[in-house]
Amino acid sequence: KLTSPALQPVITPELVQGRVHLKCSYSPASPEPPVQYRVLWSRLSSPGKREQVHHETTPQSFSYVEMDGANLRLGDTVFCTVTAFRRGTPEQQSLPEDSKGFYAGIKFLPESLEIAEDGKEHVLTVLSTVPIACPGQDDSCKITLQLSTEDLGSRVPGPPDIALSACRVDLRPEPCSGSRCAAARVAVTAVTDFAQDGHRGSRIRAQPLAPGDALWRAYTPGDVKVTVRDLPTGNCYSFTDPHIITFDGWRYDNYKIGTFLLSRSESRAFEVHVRQWDCGGHRSATACNCGVAAR
């Protein structure tokens, strides 16, 4: 075997002449005598199984492969395996070294969320691990993702238990840093539904919207699972003429006529007004709820 320092192959994304490529870089072995490298590119075809897509022998300390949409597509996890050998004596070779798997496509960070019905916003980052290429459209270059939510079959069927701050996000090209070539953010909030419906699961999906680049057309990114923890809810009441019971159980009567602030949150934009009119006539001073406004 050829003994040499560790090659440590690493995959990074790169644009070459406006087309998306992956570059496998590795540490050069000892320069004396001259060394060549055998580079094998593969993709994960099924869990634990790889499929070879390209191989070459080169004296360079790097190798490129194109994301052509056929051999390598968005959504693939790609590996490069490098072996060093001396020119003229290919039987004297180093042990093959694998890179870490490189996922080419859209990633969500975090990859899953667990949130509560407490009104708080949680930031979800949508990023592309490959460059966004738009030949001839440099000024308006972007990939638009349509976002949607879906209930994951909870015990109580209904609409998704989450809300997003935007239905679409734009991924605009930026210089690749590691495996981050474009990013956008969206806020996720649990829907406060005042129902004791247990912990519910939803998912967020992203779909490229009419992309100009053929590489993106047949690609559907993986989704994000969001678990919403149910929180106990409080109740308050205003009924009959009217009797009022507060969230913490205090009881009042309010026989007056007018418009009143029934409830206001100190932590979010939520309040309820009630309007009370005379409904007792001359015999008694009684008022009834005749209108309600909630924000």
Structure report:
The strands form 6 sheets. Strands 3, 4, 6, 7, 8 and 9 form a 6-stranded antiparallel sheet that branches. A 5-stranded mixed sheet has the order 11-18-17-13-15, with no helix packed on it. It has 295 residues and is an all-beta fold. The protein has 3 domains: 10-104, Immunoglobulin-like (Sandwich); 106-229, Immunoglobulins (Immunoglobulin-like); 237-294, no CATH class. The relative contact order is 0.13. The protein has one helix at 214-217, and strands at residues 10-16, 19-25, 35-46, 49-58, 62-66, 77-86, 89-93, 97-98, 102-103, 106-109, 112-116, 121-128, 143-151, 162-164, 168-171, 182-190, 200-208, 224-229, 237-239, 243-245, 251-253, 258-264, 271-278, 287-294. The chain starts with 9 loop residues before the first strand and ends with a strand. InterPro entries: Dev_Signal_Modulators, Ig_VWDE, VWF_type-D. It comes from Myiagra hebetior. GO terms for molecular function: signaling receptor binding. It holds the Pfam family Ig_VWDE.
Average per-residue pLDDT, rounded, comes to 87
Q: Within the CATH hierarchy, at the fold level, what is the topology of the largest domain?
A: Immunoglobulin-like
CATH architectural category of the largest domain:
Sandwich
Tally of helical runs = 1
Query: Which oligomeric state applies?
Result: single chain
Structural class based on helices, strands and sheet pairing: mainly beta
Give me the Rg, rounded. Answer: 30 Å
Which superfamily, in CATH terms, is the homologous superfamily of the largest domain? Immunoglobulins
Tally of individual domains:
3
What best-fitting shape do the alpha-carbon axes yield? elongated
Count of strand segments: 24
- How far the N terminus sits from the C terminus, by CA atoms, comes to 75 Å
Strand content: over 45%
Low-confidence residue ranges: none
| Helical content band | under 10%
Order of helices and strands: EEEEEEEEEEEEEEEEEHEEEEEEE
CATH class of the largest domain: Mainly Beta
